[in-house]
Amino acid sequence: MEAVKDFSAAMALVDFIPVILFGVAAVMLQRDLYNKMSKGAFALFAAGTIDVLCAGALKALYKLLYAANVCDFVPLNAMFFPVQSIGFLLAGIGVVAMLVHRQGETLAGVAAPAAFSGTFVFVTLMVAGLGCMDFGLCALAKRLKKPAAIVLLVVSFVLCLGMGYLSSKNFEKASMNWIAEGINVCGQLCFLLATVVMHKAGLKDLLLNTEK
Fold first, then answer.
1. Pick from 130, 125, 9: which is nearest to 67 by CA?
2. Per the domain annotation, does 176 fall within a domain?
3. Which one, of 190, 161, 187, 162, lies nearest residue 176 by Cα?
4. Can you tell me the mean pLDDT for 112-134?
5. Is 2 a member of any domain?
6. What rounded mean pLDDT belongs to the chain?
7. Is the Cα torsion angle 74, 52, 120, 6 positive or negative in sign?
8. Is residue 34 one of the residues assigned to a domain?
9. Three-state SS string across 16-63, please?
10. How far is Cα 156 from Cα 184, in angstroms, rounded to an integer?
11. DSSP secondary-structure letter at 118?
12. What is the pLDDT of residues 90-101, one digit of tens each?
C-alpha cells in the first residue's frame, strides 16, 4: 500500500512560486537572446525552458490536487523528472550553441535523449543541461561586466543541485517538502535576479560577434 503523502494546500500553492519566477526569467531571456541565436539554437532554448516550466507547473498541480483530496494523479508526478531533465538539457545545448555557432547557422543532428528507467539518468541530464545553461549565461554576464549576475547564477545552480540531492530523500514528509520549497524558491529567485541584472545591463544589445 502506497504511503500517504503529507502535502497541504499551502505547500502546493507555494510550489507555484518558483515556477512563476522561472517563467518570468525564461521569457525575459527568450526576448533578449532571440536576435543572438540561430533558429536551431533558439528553438532548443525555447523548447527547453517551456519543458521546464511545464514540468514545474504540472508537479505543483499534482500537489494541489492531492492536497485538496481531488485525486492522486500519479502521471503528473511521474513525468516531472523526465520532462524537466530533458528541458534543461535542451536549454543548455541552446545556450552553448549560441556561444559557439555563428548566427544564421542551423543546428543539425540534435535530438531529445531517449527515456530511461530510473531517476539517476534524469538527474544527470538535468545537472548537465542546467550547468551548460548557467555556464553560458555566466559567460554573457562576464561580457556585460556584471559579476553580481555571475554570483547569482552560481548560487542558483548550487541551490538547484541541492534540490537534486533532496529529491533522493523521503518527500512524503511535510518537513522535507517545505525545505525543498524554500530552496527551490531561493534558487529560482536568484536566477530571475541574475536575468534582470543582465537585461538592465543591455543583454539584448550585446554583440556576440556571431555574424559571418
1. 9
2. yes
3. 162
4. 68
5. no
6. 80
7. negative
8. yes
9. HHHHHHHHHHHHHHHHHHHHHCCHHHHHHHHHHHHHHHHHHHHHHHHH
10. 9
11. S
12. 999 988 888 886
Residues 174, 8: contact at Cβ < 8 Å? yes
The reported pLDDT for the residue numbered 108 is 46
- Quote the CA–CA distance of 173 and 5 in Å, as a whole number: 7
Q: Tell me the three state secondary structure of residue 206.
A: coil
Q: How far apart are CA 166 and CA 160, in angstroms?
A: 10
For the entire predicted model, the pTM comes to: 0.75
Q: What are phi and psi of 68, to 5 degrees?
A: -85, 5
Look up residue 198 and give its amino acid.
M
Binned at pLDDT 50, 70 and 90, residue 76 comes out as confident
What DSSP designation does 2 have? P
With a cut of 90, say whether residue 10 has pLDDT above it: no
pLDDT at 199: 92
Is 210 inside a domain boundary?
no
| pLDDT tens profile 147-183 | 999 999 999 998 888 776 666 555 566 677 777 788 8
Name the residue range of residue 75's domain.
9-109+116-205
Tally the domains of the chain. 1
* DSSP character string of 167-179: TTS-TTSHHHHHH
